[in-house]
Amino acid sequence: MQRFRDFVRREVVLVVAVVLAAASCLAVPPDAAYSSYIDWRTLALLFCLMAVVAGLRSLGVLDSMGKWLISRAKSQRAIAFALVGIVFFFSMAVTNDVALITFVPLALVTLRAAGMEERVFVVAALMTVAANLGSMLTPVGNPQNLYLFTASGMSIPHFLMLMAPYTALSAGLLVGCIFALFRADPCCGKDLGKSEGCGRGTAGGGESASPACLADGAANEFANEAREGAASVPMWGSHRVRLAIYLVLFCVCLLAVAGVADVRVVLAAVIAAVALVDAALFRRVDYALLLTFAALFVFVGNMARIPLFHDAVAELVGQNAIVAAVGASQVISNVPAAVLLSGFTTQWSALIVGTNLGGLGTLIASMASLITFKAISIGRVGAKVRYVKVFTLINVMFLVVLLGAALLFGL
């Protein structure tokens, strides 16, 4: 029973989706139409991308790039730029949740080593916003984008042109926030004497370290404290064949997303390659997300066949699809909102913009935001309440500006 309760708390979105799907089956008994509900192409693409990205993470590729970038930061502002910039740009290729899973632990260690512990809530909130906004540029940046891109039949250039203005405005807002909130003064590390070759000096009785030593100390702490879920040692240098295979597979997945390669062939290739190279990667695929999509497909398919429900939702979306998508995302998160509303409208551009902007706002608007929330809460008394306040303030600010731009100017 305890394991069941833990599972429900951990996978609440999946549980709710399954319950809704089961309830809808009572209203619409299973029949031949059920076979058309599930978008198998989206599920296959999600599986392939998750497996390949897990392979890249297992080699420490992302960790190494992140540490290299941070090692060049010489001030609080530069460190904030590095941490926020990493997740903003990497989320475009490896999804927002993978970017946060990989770089938030590194950020927490780096901020402690830099003597910036008091800024951890602001940096973490900005990193989360950056991951959710950077990921909206590409079809593979987050699950709802991949689903809506596939369902709409939109071309990649069209998708990029649709989301580029919002991404550019988001980048400008992030740059402005960092300039306003962080100083350009050199930062001082703490307790970094464990790193060999790091010179140490004193100033006013305190210890300080050079930026290079700061990065070494942060990397060493990260290696000791953040092994779970990501390789702490850059293995790709000694596993170049595996790295090459994963990179090729990632490119092939992108071809499948673009419609150039047959997704069935790509799925078979990914399964075969992963099975031969590292079968353990299959355990790192987020099957809960795949099952959540499948359950939502069943729920939406059934509810669309109930005239009263269909007409009510269609009328709501018809009034303003962007606002409807943003509003629904605040309550049920943007991935379920994308699947739900797609069953009642063909305003694909509005749904894509709305569900991406809808990832801002509440803590559950984007489920990826919970990754940072959980990480920031560990070992910090009262951190949950304080972080939610900072997170909500920053998210609402970004949401007001971006949604206002969408409604006023139709970017």
Give a quick precis of the structure.
This protein has 411 residues and is mainly α. It is built from 19 helices and two strands. The longest helix is centred in the C-terminal third of the chain and has 27 residues, at 383-409.
Describe the structure.
The protein is mainly α. The protein has one domain. It contains 19 helices and 2 strands. The termini are far apart. About 11% of the residues have low confidence.
Name the descriptors.
411 residues; mainly alpha; two-stranded antiparallel ribbon; 19 helices
Order of helices and strands: HHHHHHHHHEEHHHHHHHHHH
Main-sheet strand order equals 1-2
Low-confidence stretches: 190-233
Tell me about the largest β-sheet.
Answer: 2 strands, antiparallel
Helix content: 55-70%
The rounded distance between the terminal residues' Cα atoms is: 50 Å
Q: What structural class results from the helix and strand content?
A: mainly alpha
Radius of gyration: 22 Å
Number of beta-strand segments:
2
Number of self-contained structural domains: 1
In what range is the share of β-strand residues? under 5%
User: How many separate helices?
Assistant: 19
What general outline do the C-alpha atoms trace?
Answer: globular
Write the SSE topology.
Elements: H1 2-10, H2 12-27, H3 40-58, H4 61-70, H5 76-94, H6 96-113, H7 120-134, H8 143-152, H9 156-181, E1 200-203, E2 206-209, H10 211-225, H11 240-257, H12 263-277, H13 287-303, H14 307-319, H15 321-332, H16 334-342, H17 348-357, H18 369-377, H19 383-409
Helix pairs in contact: 2-13, 3-8, 3-11, 3-12, 4-6, 5-6, 5-7, 5-9, 6-7, 6-10, 6-18, 7-9, 7-19, 8-16, 8-17, 11-12, 13-16, 14-15, 15-16, 15-17, 16-17, 18-19
